[in-house]
């Protein structure tokens, strides 16, 4: 047996039998220290303990053809006759509708006490205190967490103190052979966070994920509160302060991170509801008109966490990650949901109003703001009748939350609930009774009416086909100026399911990690908004059984365009033209796609 | 045992008088405050529901005296977790009635009730408030018919705390005792709180407790 594995078992047994919540006593630490070169291997054995067949569900044959050469060939065609393609040739291309399967399977947080099931997971998150007290783990029971919290604490503190008295932080290490596993640490004393990933993620990405989890703890507790409880007792058990809703929210954030389910966290930005600029302006005027003294921010949010617009003071902007945290809290758990009638599914409770203290870490990690939250269902018989909308939309089943918008009013004053409630009531009334606003919101969120009476998909999302962008299956366009992005539908109005969405985002995450940091713009520094020779096109080809996909990332100082296309067909001219079309379209429509500034007072 | 509340069954176009009545639900986490509210509000029950964060506000119109009067219940459902306790005074300030809810299977949650009673008494004395206190034992479906394991303690507690005006045993899951509880609430609305009904409060919805089932619970 591998002596290193024995070593790991030794730590394991010891921490259970001593009942010291995973704290190692001095001799063990010394023993560890004596084997400095083996410390990383100690944790390596955690990985080796996996059954061999349990490597990550995703196996890429990532043949990355010579990047530069492809870029060169595409560049060559740009200067050539890219626009000579006739429109008919364009349209005659077969539009296949593949079910792409790259082997991605979503995973879920669990409390499983089976160690084998624990080690099989390809993504882990741990939160503990610097004293080694367990706080949270994505997978595994409390017992498993307790043991590993002790190990993690030992590893972190071992590297922290050098013999020369300097302190330094262990950030990351990797282990494993073919299936590389990365370990990442974030020491935010008194809290330590660690992530393990076998999903080919970079240190930067994993660090951002840990940062997000840490910020979530700040969101619910605030920095001074955390510091206070640990100052009082170093050995404090933070789990005492976390309720079922908080754990559920941590679980769902971890699920999203592990399953690449939240594009905003990967690409960095928020998604907006696509709508006409004049309509957004009208809504902003409503917010400005109804505002009162103690209102700090107002947010209107469409299903899927897509912003409709914001109201903010001139001197304060809203930080993207603060909003991502708030949305995670509201939309990812059932705290704000209820069952309206027997045999119905849980849904956002539109007959309750909520008053929630939230710390926005980027706004101010030291204090709370108070959020009034109310959900408004646009599918309302009386209003639809009043504004001449086709009532057939009422009969559509599906997710009842897909027609609900969220009103969030943020105040610095904890006793201003009734003031906020009054504002919310007037805002909602204005939105509902203004025909233009209501009809446009309805069209964007719920859908449009076809001539034959059929209800079309909501116009709030774009389909690559409508641009048109032949060969493109899906794209994400991020405007760096707005830190907002457009997440398209799959070509031909298909809504990606959770599996598909995770798969897409996993591919984009890989593109992002491979290239976004290293994106170079050669040639002139001034940003031309269209592709030309100076743009480096990054390309990755994935293969899984018979499926074959190619992903692109085009980065300039103004935007990032991620897109996916079938690997089989590779008419570069058509593809390049599609890229150009998307970029042109997004820039032409930027006032509809992105919120610039919002309503400012 | 009937669970129908007669005066909630009337769909009244315009009552003569109306009153606002503020109610707050207090108690430790996981005793079922939100479940009680959801049962009364929607007639449903979720045992998967996560804990309340902050507080939830529900307003509910109930008609009384054959529709002659309308009571507009304004209910605060508070979070039981300790980290929200510093906010709780916001919610019971100006309230007319407080439910102190405990879990009949958890003596700890019952002992926590004492904390709330002291808190509320201090508030009442300082503010000369006429806040009514009601003790509510939830999850009575989980205890034997003769009562829960600490029935004696409850009785003694009621004896030494005469400011508790009534004690109810309910089950949000099985919909037991809630009709009586809210009947008591509506009956407690003082006549002096009623004022002429104003037209802007129109649009009364029939909010009768839905889908009542005969109960087998003997508590």
UniProtKB/TrEMBL annotation, chain A:
Entries under InterPro entries matching the protein:
FUZ/MON1/HPS1_longin_1 (IPR043972), FUZ/MON1/HPS1_longin_2 (IPR043971), FUZ/MON1/HPS1_longin_3 (IPR043970), Mon1 (IPR004353)
Which sequence ranges are marked TM in the entry? none
Q: Pull one GO CC term from this UniProt entry.
A: fungal-type vacuole membrane
Q: Where's the FUZ/MON1/HPS1 first Longin domain?
A: 123-251
Is the Protein transport keyword given for this protein? yes
Family statement drawn from the similarity comment of this UniProt entry: Belongs to the MON1/SAND family.
Source domain of life: Eukaryota
Role noted for this protein: Required for multiple vacuole delivery pathways including the cytoplasm to vacuole transport (Cvt), autophagy, pexophagy and endocytosis.
Its recorded name reads: Vacuolar fusion protein MON1
Q: Which organism is it from?
A: Ogataea polymorpha
Q: Where in the cell is it found?
A: Endosome, Multivesicular body membrane; Prevacuolar compartment membrane; Vacuole membrane
Q: Does the keyword 4Fe-4S apply?
A: no
Pfam families in UniProt: Fuz_longin_1, Fuz_longin_2, Fuz_longin_3
Query: Its GO biological process terms?
Result: autophagy; protein targeting to vacuole; vesicle-mediated transport
Show where the FUZ/MON1/HPS1 second Longin domain sits: 294-428
Membrane topology of the entry: Peripheral membrane protein
Q: Where is the FUZ/MON1/HPS1 third Longin domain?
A: 472-589
UniProtKB/TrEMBL annotation, chain B:
The answer to whether keyword Calcium applies is no
Keyword GTP-binding in record: yes
Instruction: Give the Pfam families listed for this entry.
Output: Ras
List the keywords (alphabetical): GTP-binding, Nucleotide-binding
Gene3D superfamilies, alphabetically? P-loop containing nucleotide triphosphate hydrolases (3.40.50.300)
**What Gene Ontology terms describe what this protein does at the molecular function level?**
GTP binding; GTPase activity
Q: Record's SMART domains?
A: RAB, RAN, RAS, RHO
Annotated SUPFAM superfamilies = P-loop containing nucleoside triphosphate hydrolases
Which PANTHER family does the protein's record reference? DRAB5-RELATED
The name under which this protein is listed is Uncharacterized protein
The organism's lineage is: Eukaryota, Fungi, Dikarya, Ascomycota, Saccharomycotina
């Amino acid at each position: 047996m591998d002596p290193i594995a024995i070593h790991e078992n030794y730590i394991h047994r010891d921490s259970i039998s001593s009942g010291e919540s995973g704290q190692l006593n001095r001799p063990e630490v010394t023993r560890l220290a004596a084997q400095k070169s083996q410390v990383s291997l100690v944790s390596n054995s955690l990985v080796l303990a996996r059954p061999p067949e349990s490597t990550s569900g995703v196996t890429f044959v990532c043949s990355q053809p010579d990047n530069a050469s492809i870029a060169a060939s595409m560049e060559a065609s740009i200067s050539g006759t890219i626009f000579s393609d006739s429109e008919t040739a364009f349209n005659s291309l077969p539009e296949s509708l593949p079910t792409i399967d790259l082997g991605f399977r979503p995973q879920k947080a669990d409390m499983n006490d089976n160690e084998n099931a624990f080690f099989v997971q390809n993504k882990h998150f741990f939160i503990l205190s610097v004293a080694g007290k367990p706080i949270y783990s994505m997978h595994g029971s409390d017992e498993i967490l307790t043991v590993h919290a002790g190990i993690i604490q030992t590893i972190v503190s071992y590297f922290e103190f050098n013999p020369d008295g300097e302190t330094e932080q262990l950030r990351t290490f990797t282990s494993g052979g073919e299936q590389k596993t990365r370990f990442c640490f974030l020491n935010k004393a008194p809290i330590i966070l660690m992530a393990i990933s076998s999903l080919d993620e970079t240190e930067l990405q994993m660090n951002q994920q840990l940062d997000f989890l840490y910020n979530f703890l700040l969101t619910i507790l605030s920095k001074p509160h955390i510091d206070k409880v640990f100052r009082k007792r170093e050995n404090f058990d933070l789990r005492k302060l976390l309720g079922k809703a908080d754990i559920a929210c941590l679980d769902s954030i971890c699920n999203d991170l592990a399953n690449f389910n939240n594009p905003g966290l990967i690409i960095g930005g928020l998604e907006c509801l696509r709508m006409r600029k004049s309509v957004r302006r009208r809504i902003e005027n409503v917010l400005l008109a109804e505002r009162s003294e103690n209102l700090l921010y107002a947010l209107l949010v469409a299903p899927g966490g897509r912003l409709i617009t914001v109201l903010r003071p001139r001197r304060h902007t809203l930080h993207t990650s603060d909003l991502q945290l708030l949305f995670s809290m509201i939309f990812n758990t059932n705290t704000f949901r209820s069952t309206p009638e027997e045999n119905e599914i849980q849904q956002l409770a539109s007959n309750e109003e909520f008053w929630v203290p939230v710390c926005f870490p980027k706004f101010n990690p030291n204090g709370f703001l108070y959020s009034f939250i109310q959900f408004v269902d646009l599918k309302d018989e009386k209003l639809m009748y009043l504004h001449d909308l086709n009532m057939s939309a009422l009969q559509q089943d599906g997710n009842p939350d897909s027609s609900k918008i969220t009103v969030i009013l943020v105040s610095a004053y904890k006793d201003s609930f009734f003031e906020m409630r009054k504002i919310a009531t007037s805002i909602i009334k204005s939105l509902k009774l203004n025909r233009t606003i209501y009809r446009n919101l309805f069209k964007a969120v719920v859908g449009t009416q076809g001539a034959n009476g059929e209800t079309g998909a909501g116009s709030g999302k774009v389909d690559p086909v409508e641009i048109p962008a032949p060969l493109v299956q899906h794209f994400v366009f991020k405007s760096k100026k707005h830190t907002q992005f457009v997440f398209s539908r799959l070509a031909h109005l298909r809504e990606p399911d959770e599996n598909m969405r995770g798969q897409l985002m996993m591919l984009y995450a890989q593109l992002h990690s491979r290239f976004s940091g290293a994106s170079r713009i050669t040639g002139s520094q001034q940003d031309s908004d269209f592709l030309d020779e100076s743009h480096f096109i990054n390309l990755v080809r994935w293969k899984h059984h018979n499926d074959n996909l190619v992903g692109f990332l085009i980065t300039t100082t103004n935007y990032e365009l991620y897109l996916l296309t079938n690997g089989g067909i590779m008419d570069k001219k058509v593809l390049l033209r599609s890229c150009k079309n998307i970029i042109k379209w997004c820039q032409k429509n930027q006032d509809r796609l992105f919120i610039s500034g919002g309503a400012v007072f | 045992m009937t669970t129908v509340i007669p005066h909630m069954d009337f769909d009244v176009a315009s009552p003569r008088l109306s009153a606002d009545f503020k109610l707050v639900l207090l108690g430790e986490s996981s005793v079922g405050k939100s479940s009680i509210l959801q049962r009364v509000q929607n007639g449903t029950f979720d045992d998967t529901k996560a804990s309340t964060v902050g507080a939830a506000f529900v307003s509910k119109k109930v008609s009384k005296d054959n529709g002659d009067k309308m009571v507009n219940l304004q209910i605060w459902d508070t979070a039981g977790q300790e980290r929200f306790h510093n906010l709780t005074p916001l919610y019971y300030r100006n309230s007319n009635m407080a439910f102190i809810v405990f879990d009949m299977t958890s003596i700890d949650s019952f002992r926590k009730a004492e904390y709330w009673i002291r808190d509320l008494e201090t508030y009442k004395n300082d503010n000369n408030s006429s806040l009514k206190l009601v003790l509510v034992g939830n999850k009575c479906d989980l205890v034997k018919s003769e009562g829960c394991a600490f029935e004696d303690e409850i009785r003694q507690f009621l004896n030494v705390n005469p400011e508790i005006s009534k004690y109810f045993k309910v089950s949000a899951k099985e919909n037991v005792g809630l009709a009586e509880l809210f009947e008591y609430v509506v009956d407690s609305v003082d006549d002096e709180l009623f004022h002429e009904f104003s037209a802007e409060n129109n649009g009364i919805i029939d909010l009768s407790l839905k889908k009542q089932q005969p109960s087998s619970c003997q508590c």
